[in-house]
Amino acid sequence: MLVQANRRLTIRELAEECEISVGFCHEILTEKLKMHRVAAKFVPRLMTDDQKANCVQVCQELLDRSEEDENFLSRIITSDESWVYGYDIETKDQSSQWVGETSARPKKAHQVQSNVKVMLTVFFDAKGVVHHEYHPQGSTVHQTYYIEVLKRLMDAIRRKRPEMWRSGDWFIHHGNAPAHSALRTREFLAKHSISVLPHPPYSPDLAPCDFFLFPKLKRPLKGRRFETVPELKAIATKELKDITREVYQDCFNKWKHRWDKCVRSEGEYLEWDPDM
């Protein structure tokens, strides 16, 4: 079938190729084949075959470890950084509204994100947030700063997860940002016998902060306006605390399911889960 070979063909191009009218071609596609035209979705990066193979390898390793050790997921602390804005644009779903059959389409002014913003770093496990902090205004996340964050994380584990701290048998999972992969950071982690779980590059669909926590944190904030950084920090912290332990546990279970889906799809980018 022509349209399966090249889904970007227009109706006119298909009609000319099949030597039929444009109207009849449209009828075949929409009425008989029940097809409709959609725009391509954005993904963070179109990965090479080698990068997809690396995703599969990492996910298979994590799957194997979780099958060998039933407590594997409960020993992981995952983390990342993200900007939180004093005003973030509503999603299309949030700004939509019901209208009558003859009503005009609602108008919406062009909107931009606020200049009021704060960088959040958060570490969490299957029980909930272990440590979070907001970066000082104007600072950047470099290796020296990140090492200090890791020291505060260790103190938080000692206070909030004493059994994990005493056993020393836990893993950290973070992305491949320069501060995370820098030599001094790796030396600090090795010195304190902290094992790092692998994460494939360009794979936010396999990072719990990206596919779960940050979207869940920011969704209630979209369309709301916060004028000061302290106000923004307070509401973001409240949203973090309102996420229940059961939801965090569900996130980790779905993370494992994503490893399996990645392996079965041979490294293809995974869809976002609307239930997260």
Topology summary:
Blueprint: H1 2-5, H2 11-18, H3 22-32, H4 49-68, E1 76-85, H5 92-95, E2 117-125, E3 128-134, H6 143-160, H7 162-167, E4 171-173, H8 178-181, H9 183-191, E5 195-196, H10 208-218, H11 229-242, H12 245-264
Parallel strand pairs: 1-4, 4-5
Antiparallel strand pairs: 1-2, 2-3
- Topology as H/E string? HHHHEHEEHHEHHEHHH
Can you list the strand order of the major beta sheet?
Answer: 3-2-1-4-5
Low-confidence stretches: 90-101, 103-112
Helical amount among residues, as a percent range? 40-55%
CATH superfamily of the largest domain: Ribonuclease H-like superfamily/Ribonuclease H
CATH level-3 fold name of the largest domain: Nucleotidyltransferase, domain 5
Return Rg in Å.
Answer: 23 Å
Using the 3D structure, state the CATH architecture of the largest domain: 2-Layer Sandwich
Note the beta-strand portion.
5-15%
Describe the 3D structure:
The model is unreliable at 90-101 and 103-112 (pLDDT under 50). Strand 2 (117-125) and strand 3 form a beta hairpin. The chain contains twelve helices and five strands. The chain has helices spanning 2-5, 11-18, 22-32, 49-68, 92-95, 143-160, 162-167, 178-181, 183-191, 208-218, 229-242, 245-264; strands at residues 76-85, 117-125, 128-134, 171-173, 195-196. It has two domains: 7-40, no CATH class; 49-91 and 110-264, Nucleotidyltransferase, domain 5, CATH 3.30.420. A five-stranded mixed beta sheet has the order 3-2-1-4-5. By secondary structure, it is an alpha/beta fold. The radius of gyration is 23 Å and the shape is globular.
